[in-house]
Amino acid sequence: MSDEMIPSAIEQLIPETIRLKNEGYRFVTLTCSVLPEEGWQIIYTFDRDYEMVHLSLNIPRGQEVPSLSPVYWAAFLVENEIQDLFGLRFQALTIDYQRTLYLEDQTQEPPFGRQPGKGD
Amino acid sequence: MPQSIIPFGPQHPVLPEPIHLKLTFEDEVVTEVQPALGFVHRGLEKMVGIRDFQQIQQVVERVCGICSMIHGMCYAQGMEKLMGVEVPPRSRFLRVVWSELHRIQSHLLWLGLFADSLGFESLFMECWKIREKILEVNQATTGNRVIISVNVIGGVRRDLSPGQIDWILRTIQELEQEFKAVQSVFLEDYTIRKRTIGKGILTREQAYSLGAVGPTLRGSGVALDARKLGYAAFNELDLEPVVESDGDCFARLKVRLREVLQSVDLIRQALSRLPSGEVQVKVKGFPSGEVFFRVEQPRGELFYYIKAGGGKHLDRLRIRTPTFANLPALLTILPGMWLSDVPAVVLSIDPCISCTER
């Protein structure tokens, strides 16, 4: 399994994703992590012929991220999951649950908003 | 035409676990579907902040109650890759044996549920009766029927004695004979064919672009099977993905039927080539770095991302389960279906909500 990790930027994300789709890559998933220095990292994973490619994007807190769902419609589900669990927001999400995919309306704090293991 | 909305689930006779689909109809035809999740979400990924990386092995085995061994194998192999651990060859082949036993029992469970969803009670019971043979092997060889907990970072906890190997070979021989009788019912029964052929068609292009996996993807003609990545000992076994091209419920059914027999063959291959020696190596130190690992669950490709910073706790564990990947495909094929076909089409992706709500 050789995996390629490509650093990306918010303005490059959609053009790079379109390029990957045009090259025949299949959407696998998004992986969001809390960064120690106030923000998030999202790894966008794609696959073609058993070879994965990952786009890595660092997002400062308060910054919105363009949704992948206009390019890969299937991304809407994991993007809604990330909105619920991490609290960051996606722009132009094709189906936006407004943070109620998993959570109740009254939930204030995203479960992964805090560092794991602190106060849990 | 006036529209009506019918809630499908979270409690429904064909759903063993809770998921809600808000179905919009014109007459009796589905025009729109919106899923709702979160009824049993457990937040297991967050457990990495509480349990150390060795204890997480037991946590991931509880992501799914049906394919727990394969979750455990994916995590263990991911950690071994991260920590640079070379496991004994015998353990790699034993992983193939137990994971293919898991695939058989999972497919038989689904086949029974699918027969039940069509009102075929006796076929349901026959499938689950055959499944019992696998559960008995699991219990005898590992101590548990489903959550068998054989994987450990560094190999497997259990070994098979020559007597157990002979017994497993005899058992899968009997299973194969009984299964072939059941298979012919699934393939030839008038009602099953009538209710599955041409229903819930997912084209090859749709399946690929929607990120579908497993039998849902292969039933649409795409030959992708994560076992071809060669994890465990699959790189040393003869294996070709089972593919059907029609993309309907019947095609997905045929893929799973053929995969049961493929798993029987893989178990025979693995046992016939089982090397001698140890089954586990001791792992020292703490993991550091990040790794992606994929395996093939009964429902499709399972994806793990593990990130560690050199301590006893992982920084991040991300699990993308196959049902999560197959939900967009389900939402795509339901519009245009008659209400009466919805239960069979929903079940045709073999939804596992326990996995989805990890």
CA-atom Rg of chain A in angstroms: 15 Å
CATH top-level class of chain B: Mainly Alpha
**Oligomer designation:** heterodimer
Low-confidence stretches of chain A: 115-120
Question: What is the assigned CATH homologous superfamily of chain A?
Answer: NADH:ubiquinone oxidoreductase Nqo5 subunit
CATH topology label of chain B: Cytochrome-c3 Hydrogenase, chain B
Tell me the helix content of chain B.
Answer: 40-55%
Tell me the distance between the termini of chain B: 40 Å
What is the CATH topology classification name of chain A? Answer: Beta Polymerase, domain 2
| Percentage beta strand of chain A | 25-35%
SS content category of chain A:
alpha/beta
Number of domains of chain A: 1
Kindly estimate the percentage of residues of chain B that lie in beta strands according to DSSP.
5-15%
Number of strands of chain A: 6
Query: Order of strands in the sheet with the most strands of chain A?
Result: 1-4-3-2
By CATH, the architecture of chain A is named 2-Layer Sandwich
Order of helices and strands of chain B: EEEHHHHEEHHHHHEEEHHH
CATH architecture of chain B: Orthogonal Bundle
- The radius of gyration of chain B is 20 Å
Tell me the series of helices and strands of chain A, N- to C-terminal. EHEEEEHE
